[in-house]
Design goal:
The protein has about 350 residues and is of the alpha/beta class. About 40% of the residues lie in helices and about 15% in strands. It is built from 13 helices and 13 strands. The model has no long low-confidence stretch (mean pLDDT about 95).
Length: about 350
């Protein structure tokens, strides 16, 4: 049984969709309760799942609580896997092993009822253990990404010349993502165009920054995109500019789609990237260093080829669907006898 009370869009939410569908493909029997975002519900149904839409309100949402209790009683799960704070707090008690998945450095007060905690990076697991979670109750299982290719997004759709260096950024338009740094960096790279795919409250501010730097014609805001493979297929360099990034699904996606990566050295990218092997790391909040690394990747063919090959090899070795589903299966097998 899986519970997800997240937003309509986001990295954790997108991975929840992928994992639920992957479990289904692997023959795992599951029931799912999610907030009734229509796009998610439709995607899960199309994959053969039957999600239950629940509000997952705060303290007085008795309907969600009673519905979850009925689902537990009817399905009698061995494992209940909950995602992030709200779904974990909403999980009723029962005769099952409660596993909560964390994709960040969350306040652990919300996780007191969970039997086991899963972090999707080793650094998150280290954080859990520093906070007093025993080693036999804190586990590392990474994410996987979809490597299915799509035809490249037409550059002409966004006024991008075919011969211009194209830089791609993905994520919520939020201060943590550092898109202001990325826009400043791209402004320093001659002829480079930037596509930013995502939505958020900072869009107007970022548009104004591009205008003030004189690069409005070189920066395009694509909105939220589910077809990110088409964007990777069009890009020359992917940049993760985040000030705070616990994992970096977007780095994994770039590796899977064979796009060279430049990343600010926040938590997740620093754990993932071997500098010069499968990407380049730059200091957080340093647009000058970011611009220089982008130019290096564009200029040095051999380095670019090395990084693309290294990124794809890292993805295939650790972050495929088969590897991650197997890791969850192994974890569940280890913890079930120790209820």
């Amino acid at each position: 049984m899986q519970l997800m009370a997240g937003a309509a869009h986001g990295g954790a939410e997108a991975f929840f969709d992928r994992l639920a569908i992957a479990f289904h493909r692997a023959g795992v029997e599951q029931v799912i309760a999610v907030r009734p975002h229509e796009e998610r519900m439709a995607k899960l149904r199309a994959a053969g799942l039957h999600p239950k839409g629940l509000r997952f309100g705060r303290h007085f949402d008795l309907k969600t609580w009673w519905t979850l209790r009925r689902m537990v009683k009817r399905f009698r799960p061995d494992i209940v896997l909950t995602w992030m704070n709200r779904a974990t707090a909403a999980c009723p008690a029962g005769d099952f092993v409660h596993v909560a998945r964390l994709g960040g450095y969350y306040d652990l007060r919300h996780y007191r009822g969970a039997d086991h905690l899963v972090g999707n990076t080793r650094d998150i697991v280290a954080y859990l253990r520093r906070k007093g979670v025993p080693a036999d109750r804190s586990h590392y299982v990474p994410n996987f990404v979809d490597a299915t290719p799509l035809p490249a997004e037409p550059r002409a759709r966004w006024g991008t010349p075919e011969d211009a260096p194209l830089i791609l950024g993905l994520g919520r338009l939020h201060p943590n993502k550092g898109f202001d740094v990325l826009i400043r960096a791209v402004a320093q790279v001659p002829r480079a165009h930037l596509w930013i795919a995502g939505v958020g409250s900072l869009e107007d501010d970022l548009r104004e920054l591009a205008r003030s730097l004189g690069v409005t014609d070189r920066v395009s805001f694509l909105g939220w995109r589910a077809d990110v493979a088409a964007l990777y297929a069009a890009a020359d360099v992917f940049v993760c500019s985040s000030r705070h990034e616990p994992l970096g699904n977007i780095v994994l996606e770039a590796w899977a789609h064979r796009v060279p990566v430049v990343a600010a050295a926040s938590q997740g990218p620093s754990e993932l990237i071997a500098h010069g092997v499968n990407g380049l790391l730059v200091p957080v909040d340093n647009d000058t260093a970011m611009a220089a690394s982008i130019e290096t990747v564009l200029r040095e063919t051999r380095l670019r080829e090395t990084m693309v090959a290294g990124g794809r090899a890292t993805y295939e070795g650790h972050f495929t669907e088969a590897a991650v589903v197997r890791a969850y299966a192994d974890l569940f097998a280890r913890i079930l006898p120790n209820r």
